[in-house]
Structure prediction request, 316 residues.
Amino acid sequence: MTNILCIVGPTGTGKTRLSIGLAKALDAEVVSCDSMQVYRHMDIGTAKPSAEEMAKVPHHMIDVAEPWEDYSVGRYVPAADACIQDILSRGKKVLVVGGTGLYVDSLILGRDFAPFPRTGVREALEAEADRTGMEVMLGRLAAVDPETAARLHLADRKRILRALEVYEETGLPISEHDRRSRQTPPRYRPLWIGLNYQDRADLYRRIDARVDAMLQGGLLEEIASLLRLGIPESATALQAIGYKEFLPVLRGERALSEAAAEVQQSSRRYAKRQLTWFRRNPDMHWLDLPAQPDFSRAEDQVRRILAETDSQELLE
Prediction:
């Protein structure tokens, strides 16, 4: 039995459009599962639902952080889980919608990413890394957690220091924490719906057109306004695809057309990685969309899947 429906898939597949219609039909509320839509003031480049769409259906986990914050899955999971529990307690159904695979899987599995209190360990590790360099820090990690160290690159400073922090705070390597988490039964058992296009070229054309539409809709001004707020270019939010590429354009150091082409290419590559991630899920029901999708028909397909599975209660 479940009252949770997950709608996932690569960028540009119409997840928001499908979810609005389904949420209204199922008396559900949407919990966004997008690592960039959590940031305020970043609407165009993250393809947030419009104000009109959010007025039709309650949305959660959108605009919950400032762009200068270093948001992570560790913050997302407990906050999103609280939203799910609140929605269910009110007798509503839940649509988890988005394309950030790590976030949605961690939420459904119920992975524990409880943050450590400020003990000074992380700050000390940061200072040591600045002083000695990441090669020394990676070697230190290899001594206590060779499994994690073997899969991390020297450039991955954030994850190396996080792994060292976990070991120093808990006495266990992060690889062991991950192993124990995988052995824990999932917190929720939703119905999974994955969106994709029948022809990969159609998906790529849609992504390219979406980037053009974002620029026409004021993406450059959105980025400029973030900089005027004092947000550093190194902030996590401004390292997102569709933001970092245009920073040199605003400095007059790069042509707009060149940056736009890079965003389109990076977005297509990201979509491919998203598909790889979600295709590992054996419980996924895929909807392969035509070049010109009819989302009312897609809604009907989802209802048929609900009726044919043990998720009948979502229709009630």
User: Anything to note?
Assistant: The chain has two domains: 4-110+186-315, 121-183. The mean pLDDT is 92. DSSP finds 14 helices and six strands in the chain.
